[in-house]
Amino acid sequence: MSFNEKSYTGHLLMVVAYTVFGLNIPAVKSIIGVVGITGLSVTFYRMAGAAVLFWIASIFAKKQHVPLRDIGMMFIASLFCIFLNQMPFIVGVSLTSAIDAGVITTIGPMLTMVLAALFLREPITWIKAGGVAVGAAGALLLILGGGAAAGRGGASVTGDLLCVASCMSFAIYLTAFKRLFTTYSPVTLMKWMFLFAAVLSFPVCWGDVAAVDYASLGWKVWATIAFIVGGATFLTFFLLPIGQRYLRPTVLSMYNYLQPTVAAVVAVVAGMDTFGPTKGLATLLVFVGVWIVTRSKSRAQIEGGR
Predict the structure, then answer these.
(1) Which of 259, 256, 241, 124 is nearest to 180 (CA)?
(2) pLDDT 10s digits, 16-61
């Protein structure tokens, strides 16, 4: 496969992955509260369901030996990539509005670049710092505005902060565990990570899972759960590591734009949310902030220029 073909493949995979990520937000919102379904129960469905699917997929995939040391690293990575990422996010989505959750996810690239300065020694330039400040202003506007409008759009400060914590956790995974997703195949990596995450989430989520009245669930709810597990979890976490091999991190991070766009369109069309002036300004600030940060130069580009 040539360089251009790899690039096109990476772009296509990221369009699919982040579009599905965007659809996940209103999908989760649509089933929360149905005969006892909570954010914690949906979290366990995702972790346990994806673990089962990845282990089934591993039967047909090429076998890779994973030394005990790396299995330990995968356990730690699963904390940041899945457990501390998905748990706060799903619970946060259940507490806040779909549009707020979607827009907050776009701060991921900014958090990743800031943490890259710590883990990968990437420079923080004035352009990068300015982008972080603009994006942070948008996130704060969402959080504070959401608290003021909690009675109108379903937004809350707690829900927004949980979504921010989720983004921070995933940013740590991308910057601190790069060797894992460049060494192992997506199936090998994710089957262990989701297994660990499912085990960790069991004692936290099982009470909510057992309380659901499954006999009363209609086919639409079951279909939504199947999409959340099979599409928004298994498929997306299978595609992401592949895209990371074909695209530079800065280019890949731009696809976070698709999440709030898709989530906002679906939420408004479905009548689940509204898009007022405050959300519009917050969205603009976050988009501008992310764009500024992703336009800044990496350490390799700066050193190459010298």
Answers:
(1) 241
(2) 898 888 788 778 888 988 888 988 899 899 999 999 999 999 999 9
- Residue by residue, DSSP assigns the chain as --HHHHHHHHHHHHHHHHHHHHHHHHHHHHHTTGGG--HHHHHHHHHHHHHHHHHHHHHHSPP----HHHHHHHHHHHIIIIIHHHHHHHHHHHHS-HHHHHHHGGGHHHHHHHHHHHHS-----HHHHHHHHHHHHHHHHHHHHHHHTHHHHS--HHHHHHHHHHHHHHHHHHHH-HHHHHHS-HHHHHHHHHHHHHHHHHHHHHHHHHHS-GGG--HHHHHHHHIIIIIIIIIHHHHHHHHHHHS-HHHHHGGGGHHHHHHHHHHHHTTS----HHHHHHHHHHHHHHHHHHHSPPHHHHHHH-
Tokens coding 110: 């900014």
Provide long-range contacts, Cβ within 8 A and 24+ apart, for 269-273.
Answer: 270/26, 270/30, 272/26, 272/29, 272/30, 272/98, 273/97, 273/98, 273/99, 273/153, 273/154
Domain boundaries, the chain: 3-305
Say which amino acid occupies 203: P
Give the separation between CA 103 and CA 139, rounded to whole angstroms: 8
Q: What is the pTM of this model?
A: 0.76
**Which residues does 224 contact at the CB level (< 8 Å), separation at least 6?**
27, 30, 31
Give 69-83 pLDDT, tens digit per residue. Answer: 999 999 999 999 889
93 close to 115: Cβ distance less than 8 angstroms: no
As a whole number of angstroms, the distance between CA 306 and CA 298 comes to 13
